Amino acid sequence: MNRIGLAMTVVRRTILVVLVAILLAHYIQRWAQDLGQDRGINDPMKELQADGAVTEIPVGRTVLIDRDRFTADAVYVTQKQIMVTYTYHIKQAKHGWSFPATSLKLVMPDGQQLYGRSSGSHGTSWGERGYIFYGLPNQPADRATLVYDIYDRFAKIELPLAKAGEDA
Amino acid sequence: MNKRTLFAIAEWAAVLLLIWLFYRSDIIFPHGSSTPEQAHRLSESSYHYGPSKVVRKVAAPFDPDRVVFLGTYKIWFSADTVVRKRGGWWPNGGVAGVEIDRDKPFSYSWEGSATQDSLMAYKFYGYVTDDRISAVELLLTDRNTGKSTPMREEIGADRMFLFLWEANDDSRMQAVRGLDKEGSVVYEQELG
Questions:
Q1: High-pLDDT (> 70) share of chain A, %
Q2: What's residue A168's pLDDT?
């Protein structure tokens, strides 16, 4: 009886130690991932810096899309392009599609619509961080509206632009 | 009950809790949704579409682990596919709604995705607006022999059609036809 009890204790504690070690490693990795500032496989800042001077404009405005929370974090403007970074907190954290970022368009004050040329994102346990690149508008503008318009869902955020499209 | 027994019970409870956390964390493998319906619902909500009115739930005849939810939502129709992998259900494609073109006899869409047996699983689906059309026929042609094989579906009250098949690269979609009650072609659209 004592031998069986001893064996059970060894088995139980081995399972405990192994599971605690695996789970700790998993949660530490996830925590580090969630804290990270990565927004995709490629580093979008390198692409912007290749254009020359980069103007960063903090935004920090949030809208609700259904039960999900979309925040435009910042706008970066160069002589060649505009980049918008975002944070997306989702209610449903698993088993769904990632945010359809290419559905976001920039609408300029004169009505010109700019569509995302490329985008990237980095998944976290609560959603994702990402970025979208746009070309420059035909007419220089100091503001634009970021519009999410997909099926019957609609959301918009006003963005300052620092005269995007103006020749340096 | 002595202290040692109580301690052992507490340790077993901790083991069970950790096993549950381990399962929930998807460390070894993500376990997906427990039902096709739940996977479909999560697929639509994460895509900000729907919830659609499901008119048919169809398991692929060549793969019972592939289920299609055919449905409509406002002015759109969709055929959302979910597949079972490692015991759980996952979104697979077709969640995006396609607008119903009321100026055409029927609207359609299609897609193909690779299967585990190196074939392609095809899905051709649509919505019929012309009341004269009582059946839809999809014509597949063998690239090598030129032989055509029609697939036919009667149109019911939901006005929708769905063709599911598995094939290699040897066949191509030639045309889709809307037929009236007498079997005469009301409308034909050439494909690729």
A1: 89
A2: 40
Q: Is the Cβ pair B95, A97 closer than 8 Å? A: yes
Name the interface residues of B facing A (CB cutoff 8 Å).
Answer: 8, 11-12, 14-15, 18-19, 21-22, 25-27, 30, 32-33, 39, 42-43, 45-49, 73-74, 76, 88, 90-91, 95, 97
Give me the pLDDT at residue B162, please.
98
Cα angle B148, B153, B159 (rounded to 5 degrees) comes to 135
Q: State the average pLDDT over residues B44-71.
A: 95
Please tell me the distance in Å from A53's CA to the nearest CA on chain B: 36
Question: Residues B73, B158: one domain?
Answer: yes
Q: For residue B51, is it left (φ>0), alpha (ψ between -120 and 50) or beta?
A: beta
Tell me which residue of A134, A130, A129 sits closest to A144, measured CA to CA.
A134
User: Across the interface, which of B14, B42, B74 has its CB nearest the CB of A16?
Assistant: B14
Q: What is the mean pLDDT of chain B?
A: 91
Question: For residue B21, what are the domain limits?
Answer: 1-30
CB-CB neighbours of A48 under 10 Å: 22
Q: Kindly tell me if the per-residue pLDDT of A73 is higher than 50.
A: yes
In this prediction the pTM is: 0.81
- Shared domain check, B165 and B76: yes
What total of structural domains would you count in chain B? 2
Q: What is the pLDDT of residues A2-13, one digit of tens each?
A: 888 888 889 999
Half-sphere exposure for A139 (CA within 13 Å, toward CB): 11
